[in-house]
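Weekly modeling sync, notes
Attendees: S.R. (lead), two postdocs, one rotation student

Agenda item 3: backlog of single-chain predictions. S.R. asked that every request posted to the team notebook include the full sequence so nobody has to chase files. The rotation student volunteered to paste the first one in as an example of the format we agreed on. Action items at the bottom.

Example entry:
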Amino acid sequence: MYRGGKKVFAYVGTWAAYRQGRGEFNTSHIDPTLCDYLLYAFFGVTVSGEVEIKDPWLDLEDSGRGNIRRFNELKRVNRSLKTLASFGGATFPAYKFSQVAASSNLRSRFASNARRFCQEHDFDGIDIDWEFPTSGDRSNFVQLLAALSSELHSAGLILTVAVGPTESRASESYDIGGIARHVDFINLMAYDYNGSWDSYTGHNAPLYAGPSDQGFQKQLNIDHSVQHWLRQGAPAGKLMLGVPACGRTFKLANAYNHDLRDTAEAPGNPGSYTNNAGTLAYYEVLENLQNGFTRARDHTQKVPYAYSGRQWMSYDDPESIADKCNYAVNRNLGGVMMWSIDMDDFRGNYGRSYPLLKKVNECLGR
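Predicted structure, as returned to the notebook:
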């Protein structure tokens, strides 16, 4: 099948520069030939509509590391590469977006400030990652995107948005048709369907519902999310399917019950480098597999998982990434987005470098 024209988006969690040992990830580790759009995560917005640089020492030049400049200089290596400044993120206070979006003046101020920020630092546009608008923010969110679209597009800049995937989240937070009118691409964060906040195991990013899913659990998969977004007015060509370079982990209630939807009682152990209970980078997953975890696979959901004693982890590997890429192609989606490439095996400690991101490229015929 011809797969030309599919885009590859890749987020970079810039705080990975502070990880120790094998986990330390700097701009020099990025291979800019492996993506069309690189997204610098994250910047913020103040309640007065100003751009907020959250780590000046890392990001800026004055007595700092000049990371923004180094990031955008990657376009010298890949002349077709576009770079985006991503605003928000999971830990960013949502009330700041809410206040700016609720005011016409603040929407305009943020839009003009975002344009100037891009032009000053050589970004090709911005990405809005508001996690998550409430039902009261739905209309204002569209108006915020409309103001950004007018300001950025008039300057030849790009506007994208990152969105929660599930039907329940989308129904509360998003006017999908309204969003789609104003943005160039929609990055569907099709992961974190299950995690240590649950009292049972579940895969981070299942492609389909599994045989043990019951009730609401049947909605917690990529296929259900994509179908919902398409039905509600997201153009297939604007929808980017998000795939994770990280896994979710659990502590089992009983070491002998280690299947999907078995009882769990706590997050899994933190990784050696990311140091975040309940989450592992792919290179930490590979370390666990090398250290004796038992592999398993759910062929209905098309995903792997593994366990050792009471430790249980879900993750994606090149095979499951290929299944997701093929899904995106077969449904004529715009391409694939990865969160985040600093959690792929970027150093190639367990084989070739960037095994997941390179599999995305291969599947899309790049």
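Discussion: group reviewed the output briefly. The chain is about 30% helix and 20% strand.
Action items: rotation student to repeat for the remaining queue; S.R. to check formatting next week.
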